[in-house]
Design brief:
Length: 331
């Protein structure tokens, strides 16, 4: 079974050491696959991967419903995380980032209804609303804890200063942000603050949005026209940047072959090795990829292996910004 880890100290949440990101089951990374998504979630639970991540904006709204159906009858096994803040209309139109207290309360109630549960284990602010003091947003989130609707609070893509201010209002259990061999900027300021305050780290895109699996090439790898990765929104998948990044993936592949593992397994093992307070949430809608990701838990990396990986993918060698538009990131 999957080992366990603890997120947070002041408000501690016990979760599986590896989580499952559910976003791609409904949107962004190719054709939605509800049946495949439900099967993948249920297989995850059988493997002891019980930390599930969704958000109201995925679909929009339909991903929470999918997750709710998949965990029906097994709620007690699951640590359920969802997010608010990226406001969208039912037709998919993006309204903007919303951290107003009244919206926080309404979004939580709507998520509970879609998920079909009476509480959310970890409730994140998906993006920081720079027009609303973080103290007001987190204050409203804290009210949800007091009401029993939410057990633990999280932030996503928040700056070090925002994390400090939020934690001063109510204990923050986890920060969700992008972190992988391809994205390590949080190591400079954010990770030290998390460790100082006793806040766990939940890396999303720990496989570099699939690049580090070694399955994406310059000619193939996108999952149809609906795969949002092959757009200007993700510069690392474009032209010359993609060519340079695939060279780095080949470096990881060479190390993986020596370990008898896949590139993705070694990349995930590197993230897992960054601390017992780190719980990555690789996303997939296919059982076979879930099972491959679970195999990362048995990949042992020595100090020499870790050094080799970091030499194979130097921090400044990755080409392209992680988003084409970084304005939604709190900095």
């Amino acid at each position: 079974m999957t080992p366990r880890r603890t997120l947070g100290t002041a408000s501690a949440l016990d979760v599986s050491a590896l989580g499952l990101g559910c976003m791609g089951m409904s949107e962004f990374y190719g054709t939605p696959d509800e049946a495949g998504g439900v099967a993948t979630i249920r297989r995850a639970l059988d493997l002891g991967i019980t930390f599930l991540d969704t958000a109201d904006m995925y679909g929009p709204f339909s991903n929470e419903q999918l997750v709710g159906r998949a965990v029906a009858g097994r709620r007690d096994e699951v640590q359920l995380a969802t997010k608010f803040g990226n406001e969208r209309l039912p037709d998919g139109t993006r309204v903007g980032i919303n951290g107003r207290p009244e919206y926080v309360r309404a979004a939580c109630d709507a998520s509970l209804q879609r998920l079909g549960v009476d509480h959310i284990d970890l409730y994140y602010q998906h993006r920081v609303d720079k027009t609303v003091p973080i103290e007001e947003s987190v204050g409203a989130m804290a009210e949800l804890v007091e009401a029993g609707k939410v057990r633990h609070l999280g932030l996503s893509e928040a700056s070090a200063d925002t994390i400090r201010r939020a934690h001063g209002v109510h204990p923050i259990t986890a920060l969700q942000t992008e972190y992988s061999l391809f994205t390590r900027d949080l190591e400079d300021e954010i990770l030290p603050v998390l460790r100082e305050l006793g806040i766990g780290l939940v890396p999303y895109s720990p496989l570099g949005r699939g690049l580090l699996t070694g399955t994406i090439t310059a000619e193939s790898g996108a999952d149809g026209a609906a795969d949002f990765r092959r757009s200007a929104y993700f510069p690392r998948f474009e032209g010359e940047a993609l060519a340079r990044n695939l060279v780095l993936v080949d470096n990881v592949r060479a190390i993986a072959e020596q370990k008898g593992a896949t590139p993705g397994q070694v990349a995930l093992a590197w993230v897992l090795a960054q601390g017992d307070d780190v719980v990555p949430i690789p996303g997939t809608k296919r059982v076979r990829y879930l099972e491959e990701n679970a195999g990362s838990l048995t990949v042992e990396l020595s100090p020499a292996d870790l050094a080799a990986l970091e030499a194979a993918v130097p921090r400044d060698a990755v080409a392209g910004a992680r988003y084409g538009d970084m304005s939604h990131i709190d900095a």
